[in-house]
Amino acid sequence: MIRPIMRDVLFLKKKAVPATKNDMSVVQDLLDTLKANEAGCVGMAANMIGVNKRIIAVNMGFANIAMLNPMIVSKKEPYEAEEGCLSLKGVRKTTRYQEIEVEYEDIHFKKQHQKYKGWVAQIIQHEVDHCEGIII
User: Fold this and answer.
1) pTM value?
2) Which range marks the domain in which residue 96 is found?
3) CA-CA distance, 64 to 40, in Å (whole number)?
4) Is the distance from CB of 54 to CB of 16 less than 8 angstroms?
5) At a CB cut-off of 8 Å and minimum separation 6, what does 44 contact?
6) Which CATH number characterizes residue 52's domain?
7) How far is 3 from 45, CA to CA, in rounded Å?
8) Is the residue at 73 inside a domain?
9) How do residues 6-54 score in pLDDT, each as one tens digit?
């Protein structure tokens, strides 16, 4: 189900709670909402659709994938980026990293450990920040 985009900054600043197997409908809603907003959005966190769970959806270029309970465990090569967000107006500067390692659970709750670089790494960092209650 496509959900409206959350714009309440106080809600967005809350740290998300861990996702569980009971949250699979949220995963689907997040993927549906990302798909519906793909013209202006490449990633989304569950709090952006009003659900305070640690779930993100990321456009990998070939498909949108969901990551449950993502944690960035390593970062390399910082740089300054300028980003926008569907939940906010305008763009803002922020520090990102060229290369990251992420631990997360896939939609089957199987643990994953992946390295990402460049644009996809930047998207993941933005969405994980949402899970931490960090807004650009």
Assistant:
1) 0.96
2) 9-131
3) 14
4) yes
5) 30, 33, 34, 37, 56, 57, 86, 127
6) 3.90.45.10
7) 12
8) yes
9) 999 999 999 999 999 999 999 999 999 999 999 999 999 999 999 999 9
Structure tokens at 108: 């089957």
Catalytic residue among 82, 101, 127, 132: 127
Tell me what pLDDT residue 34 has: 98
Q: Give the total number of structural domains in the chain.
A: 1
Contact of 120 with 54, CB cutoff 8 Å: no
Q: Is 101 part of the annotated catalytic residue set?
A: no
79-99 CB burial, b ≥16 within 10 A, e <16: eebebebbbeeeeeebebbee
3-state SS, residue 6: coil
Is residue 96 domain-resident? yes
